[in-house]
Specification:
By secondary structure, the protein is an alpha/beta fold. The chain contains eleven helices and 14 strands. Strand 5, helix 6 and strand 6 form a beta-alpha-beta unit.
Length: about 325
């Protein structure tokens, strides 16, 4: 690939109402958008990629922006998605650049990104819709408004979770429920909470125990499948998880881009894991490349734009909980 120019910026997108998990609440999605173009081609195509820095992994918007802009010299010499994997660690900064490179390659070739990747054209998928953490009454009210959606993702947070999941189930008797504890459960409460979820017909529980302190999952009988999120990032983190988890949640901001996400999905499937493809709260530009990785997923959780007060122009089309593949004007 010839020399490239690189720019990036921080954007802030208000969330509709608010978004609360066990680690706290926020009212806006802070994203970084990277733009890559061919040097000396002012009228040529540009590729864009979006990432969402996550404080849980020590990322800040300012630090992520700096990490992206620090790659300008490398991009001015030569860069492609494979070389990028060796130059940067997994994480949000690499994700924005990796997705921008694939977008640029697709626009330059006049083909779709999935064709360049040798993947089938993506089909519409059903995404989960997230219910934020709150009191049982507040969560039941929010669930009732979303009860026609086929798949709901319920944020839990420790004490009081048995009442929360029971209230949610009453409010949405026909929806499939998955649960995300965001590391909030303890070894003492684990089996009690899993039993409450099983009684409510929950089909998957994400990351019940803190990453690095999840050994107990290998020593109990799990009544429903358990999915690793904070415990898994890229292919290197798959080792040792098979005894503890039944599924893994692949997020491009963790893997450091679509390139690693696809390779990780293939490796995880070969090890017998079910695949979930998830997201941070971001715009359609974040979700678009993830839809390629999500094509073979057991669970798809790409509802970020549905949680925003407004999405970007040319965003993904959501028909209820069904999300269509991206148009080329958005990405890829």
């Amino acid at each position: 690939m010839p020399s490239l120019t690189l720019d990036a910026r921080i954007e802030r997108w208000p969330i509709a109402g608010g978004f609360t998990i066990s680690r706290g609440a926020k009212t806006e999605a802070v994203v970084i958008v990277a733009r890559v173009s061919h040097a000396g081609a002012a009228d040529g195509p540009s590729g864009h990629g979006e990432c969402v820095p996550y404080a849980r992994y020590g990322e800040t918007p300012e630090g992520t922006l700096a990490a992206i802009l620090a790659m300008r010299d490398a991009f001015a010499q030569d860069m492609d998605p494979q070389a990028l994997q060796a130059r940067m660690p997994a994480g949000a900064a690499r994700n924005a650049l990796d997705c921008a490179l694939w977008d640029l390659a697709a626009k330059t070739a006049g083909r779709r990104a999935w064709d360049l990747l040798g993947r089938p054209a993506p089909r519409p998928l059903t995404t989960a819709y997230t219910i934020s953490l709150g009191s049982p009454e507040a969560m039941a009210e929010a669930t009732a408004r979303a009860s026609r959606r086929p798949l709901l993702k319920i944020k839990l947070g420790g004490d009081g979770d048995e009442a929360r999941i029971a209230a949610v189930r009453r409010a949405a008797p026909r929806s499939e429920l998955i649960v995300d504890a965001n590391e909030a459960w303890t070894e003492d409460s684990l089996e009690r909470h899993l039993a409450a979820c099983a009684a409510a017909g929950v089909t998957l529980v994400e990351q019940p125990l803190p990453a690095g302190r999840d050994e107990r999952l290998a020593r109990i009988r799990r009544p429903i499948p358990v999915c690793a999120d904070e415990s898994v990032h890229d292919r290197a983190s798959l080792d040792g998880l098979r005894q503890r988890y039944d599924a893994i949640n692949i997020k491009l901001d963790k893997t450091g881009g679509l390139t690693e996400a696809l390779a990780m999905a293939d490796a995880a499937s070969a090890l017998g894991f079910d695949i979930m493809v998830g997201c941070m709260v971001g715009t359609s530009l974040s979700m678009a490349p993830a839809l390629i990785a999500a094509q073979a997923a057991r669970v798809v959780d790409l509802d970020g734009p549905l949680l925003l007060a407004k999405d970007r122009d040319h965003g993904l089309r959501y028909d209820g909980s069904t999300v269509d593949p991206p148009e080329a004007t958005l990405w890829g």
